[in-house]
């Protein structure tokens, strides 16, 4: 038995309520396996702006860096929408990722059999003489580069030219950045279906040509993995046409932002999807749901806490090497779904609302 | 009656065969309305590389600039895939767009009632207590900026830094570029549902903040249009979750590339989708299908020519001010579908293959 120091960032909106559920589940699953979790809460995003004027205060950075892992809920809300960009909740999130060098964002998009009907995609379509199974059994892992690319590239900003304003950003990748994310993706592919699709726009962009070159070079160390290349426009299309084509996808920061949100829709609900952002060995990673802070339903006991519980499971699996605790958390989610419990976002005819909880948070959770 | 000079660029793969069908239909529809079309053919893409070593030879540029409108089929193929980027078919397309200053790319994504079953999206889903109609009646116009942004931004290229290669591109927009594309989009919205959604990533990118500022300023001239703003990641998601939310979408070059390909999948077949790329008043626009050159089925009399016929219709409507000829071409497409004719890409149980044609090209066309 060991003690694990978790820095918990409840953030904004539904963040605090789904955090409570996840920590309760995590503590229970840990206890069953003889593992102890110590939680240190810190503010980030809007909550941190309100408390300190800074979306990622130095005190938060400090406890994040000192932790074994960081469990983040979600940030943002209407309240802070009109602030200048540098002071907005999103900036806190970007600075958190960057300060921990959390370069590898793993976003699984799995269509659970219990939820296939919640997808806007059909179970199958007829294509010519073939029947194409569309959503059932979809199991994609998107590996998104998270601390480089156009999100952080310099130069960036505004200038005046010929009497008018110009806005500009730089999409940039260096070999070592592509190599390290490619290795994470190839390693993941080796543990899964051994197929990797690298997504870029190398028919137009030099930065993508470099990306592709490096991925091809790294592939030599992974002869068992079947590597393919796809342009981002085609990938956005194939993700809807034939999502089962994909096993692991590796891509840059903004393409990964777009594709992972799109892929999340295949599953029917953002409320189900966790993510892990991994740093170098020995440094803490960040574990967070893909969904936002849903300020419109915050505090109403309606939010789906499952993505947050599954994020805690990813933390145990990838960050703390506690696969048994992860298994327990995932089994609890499956059990809640099998028992027919559904929050509004994934409600289907014949299913039931979680029973009202003692506290303020939903209790359809494990 | 007037004579219209059309420069025709059949390009590669299925290009020549779908071009034949479209020109036959266009000539016939013109004749019925007393309009004459004179066609000047010129090579572009792979065909031009093979003939001259250049994917966009000066002779082609000349006849394009001299035309009333340019009708392009599609370019590219495996044969030219290993050439360096500057010599690839795609470069010819990018240079064509740029040389004609065809800055406004209009890409309609309309789900025809006859084809709703070909979509991988469901007709409807249950969301909580609501039934959400998903694909039926979807009618989106994507207005994509086509000659700026990261496609053409400078500086771009490769450099060496700390002993490693770095690839970089610049995403840049100036006020005047955003303003002119915004005006095209607002004008289009006025003629349609009066709703415009501007898509960018202003929570992260300065270039997007400038984009958003300018769109908001231009909106003051269009008080009747309901303007909304959406981040690209959310737009990629909403396009699958609730496509009927969208009327007109305006966005930059690469976001438009991604979104329009994704939107095309809603309709079930790329083989149905035309596009128009409009330049300044008095200059020729480019009209082309959204699909590629499909080298795998080229020359086999299997290609769906409808996107090409509909591109000719867009040319008549937007480029030549011949709405009656456009109506005839669109009616012919509808009639072919209503009669149950389908190429393989949109085949459904109970429909029939187009009857074999006298020549090499499909004849399920008007
Ligand atoms: C909030 C925003 C800055 C962030 C991003 O773009 O990375 C979000 O969309 C995400 O994907 O985590
Ligand atoms: C072929 C390619 C350069 C082109 C683009 O990216 O613009 C294509 O994808 C398109 O959308 O017309």
From TrEMBL, chains A, B:
<comment type="similarity">
    <text>Belongs to the isocitrate and isopropylmalate dehydrogenases family. LeuB type 1 subfamily.</text>
</comment>
<protein>
    <recommendedName>
        <fullName>3-isopropylmalate dehydrogenase</fullName>
    </recommendedName>
</protein>
<comment type="function">
    <text>Catalyzes the oxidation of 3-carboxy-2-hydroxy-4-methylpentanoate (3-isopropylmalate) to 3-carboxy-4-methyl-2-oxopentanoate. The product decarboxylates to 4-methyl-2 oxopentanoate.</text>
</comment>
<feature type="domain" description="Isopropylmalate dehydrogenase-like">
    <location>
        <begin position="5"/>
        <end position="350"/>
    </location>
</feature>
<comment type="subunit">
    <text>Homodimer.</text>
</comment>
């Amino acid at each position: 038995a060991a003690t694990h120091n978790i820095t918990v960032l409840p953030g904004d909106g539904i963040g605090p309520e789904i955090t409570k559920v996840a920590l309760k589940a995590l503590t229970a699953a840990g206890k069953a396996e003889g593992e102890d979790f110590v939680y240190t809460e810190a503010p980030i995003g809007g909550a941190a702006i309100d408390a300190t004027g800074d979306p990622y205060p130095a005190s938060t950075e400090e406890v994040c860096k000192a932790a074994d892992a960081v469990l983040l809920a979600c940030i943002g809300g209407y309240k802070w929408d009109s602030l200048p960009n540098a002071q907005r909740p999103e900036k806190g999130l970007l600075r958190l990722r960057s300060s921990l060098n959390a370069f590898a964002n793993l976003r699984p998009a799995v269509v659970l059999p219990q939820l296939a009907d919640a997808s806007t995609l059909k179970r199958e379509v007829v294509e010519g003489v073939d029947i194409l199974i569309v959503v059932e059994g979809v199991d994609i892992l998107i590996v998104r580069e998270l601390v480089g690319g156009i999100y952080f590239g310099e130069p960036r900003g505004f200038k005046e030219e010929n009497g008018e304003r110009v806005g500009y950003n730089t999409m940039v990748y260096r070999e070592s950045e592509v190599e390290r994310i490619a290795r994470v993706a190839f390693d993941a592919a080796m543990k899964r279906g051994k197929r990797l699709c690298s997504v870029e726009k190398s028919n137009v962009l030099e930065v993508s040509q470099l990306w592709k070159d490096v991925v091809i070079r790294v592939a030599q160390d992974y002869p068992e993995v079947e590597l393919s290349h796809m342009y981002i426009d085609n990938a956005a299309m194939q993700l809807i046409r034939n999502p089962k084509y994909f096993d692991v996808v590796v891509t840059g920061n903004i393409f990964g932002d777009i594709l992972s949100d799109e892929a999340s829709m295949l599953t029917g609900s953002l409320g189900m999807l966790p993510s892990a952002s991994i740093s170098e060995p020995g440094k803490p990673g960040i574990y967070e749901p893909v969904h936002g802070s849903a300020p419109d339903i915050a505090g109403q006991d309606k939010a789906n806490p499952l993505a947050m519980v599954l994020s805690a499971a990813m933390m145990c699996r990838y960050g703390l090497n506690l696969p048994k605790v992860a298994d327990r958390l995932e089994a609890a989610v499956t059990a809640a779904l099998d028992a027919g419990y559904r929050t509004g976002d994934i409600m289907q005819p014949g299913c039931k609302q979680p029973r009202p909880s003692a506290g303020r948070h939903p209790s359809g959770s494990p």
